[in-house]
Structure formats: structure tokens, C-alpha cells
Amino acid sequence: QQAQRRQGPKEQAQRTLDLGDGIKLDLVRIPAGEFIMGDPTGAADERPACRVAIGDPFWIGKFEITNEQFARFDSGHDSRLETGDFLQFSEQERGYSVNAPRQPVCRVSWHEAMAFCRWLSEKTGEALTLPTEAQWEKAARGTDSRLYPWGEDWKEGAANTKEAGFGTTRAPGSFADDVSPYGVFDLAGNVAEWVFDWYDRDFYKKSPRENPRGPEEGVFS
After folding, report:
1. Per-residue H/E/C for the chain
2. Which of 55, 110, 152, 156 is deepest in the core (most CB within 10 A)?
3. Tens of pLDDT along 139-169?
């Protein structure tokens, strides 16, 4: 008699958190494992490229946080957020950003981003924080050493960069090519995302090879 192997439930690859008032936050699961971090032909602070291991799977936002989502958060130091209004800047200050509910939130400090994560944790009961640089890079590049979310070579118009010519932010998920192997959008363009780590231009030269978490001190960048 041949033994039967019982298969457990399939691991969930995506999930959605409810922020209230019909506003949702989509998360993507990134598996544990090794990948190549850095770029051997890139800037000095991206070298040397090295193989690092992420010891545990983690969840990351499928899309950039929008003004609408951020406005659900009461920061305690900006009454505009308490009333649900969106961040306001003059035309000169706004520059690249677009102040609309479903555009990515801009001009948020690292401390505000961390406070938003703490608020999310309290509201949802999940332990949420900013990703480390290593986690962010694995979510963006996968495990095959590609330079861009879509592959090895630059593709004109694939992401909302200066070369695309829009001159403004676009709604998260607007660029079908700017999606990583795990299904995370806009990691090559649109707006820059904060990570947990301090910045040190020489960190790649001395980074641990397992669960790198950035230096103990550094600068904002």
C-alpha cells in the first residue's frame, strides 16, 4: 500500500488590511531566502554586490501609500490630518507631487512614516514597520540579480521617471511594467520610499550576510 502525502494549505501570497471607510491596504508576501544585493557597476554606495539572506518571509505594501490612506492616520501633530484634509503645498513647494486622494503621499518625514506604521499596527493588530533596505531590494529585484523590477535592461517608459516626461506623480500601479517578480508596483519610479535603515555610503562593504539591518548610526538620505 502506497502512503499518501497530505499537502498543507497553500501559503497566502497577498492579503488586504481594512483601514476603515472603505479604504484598503494591499500587502504582498515576500519569501525568505538569498538574493544578490547591490550593483557591481552602480554607484559607490551600491558596491560591492553581495549575496545576502533574508531569514524570514515578510509582508510589504503592494502599492505606494496614498494621500487617502495616510489621511486615515492621526499623527497628533498636524490638524490637517485630523480633519481628513490632504497635505497642502504651494505650487512651488509641490513640484513633482500631486495632491489628490489616490496619488502617492509625498513630503512625509521618516518619523512620520514610522508613526504611520505604528498606527497601522495598533489599528490592525499586525506588527508593521518600514522594510529594511535589504527587504525593500529583495521585494524589488527578486532572486535573479536583475537591475530593475522588470528585468536586466532599462526599458523606456516602463516607470514614472524623469525620462517618461510626465513631470508629476501618477496613481500607484499605473505602470504595468514597473512591477517586481513578487507583484509589488512602482519600485523603480513614481516616488522614493523610506526604509528602516540609517544611510551609510560604505555599508555594503561591511554589511552582514544574513538579515542586514543597516548601521547603528548614519544620516538621512
Report:
1. CCCCCCCCCCCCCEEEEEEECCEEEEEEEECCEEEEECCCCCCHHHCCCEEEEECCCEEEECCCCEHHHHCCCCCCCCHHHHCCCCCCCCHHHHCCCCCCCCCECCCCCHHHHHHHHHHHHHHHCCCCCCCCHHHHHHHHHCCCCCCECCECCCCCCCCCCHHHCCCCCCCCCCCCCCECCCCCECCCCCCCCCCCCCECCCHHHHCCCECCCCCCCCECC
2. 110
3. 999 999 899 999 999 999 999 998 888 888 9
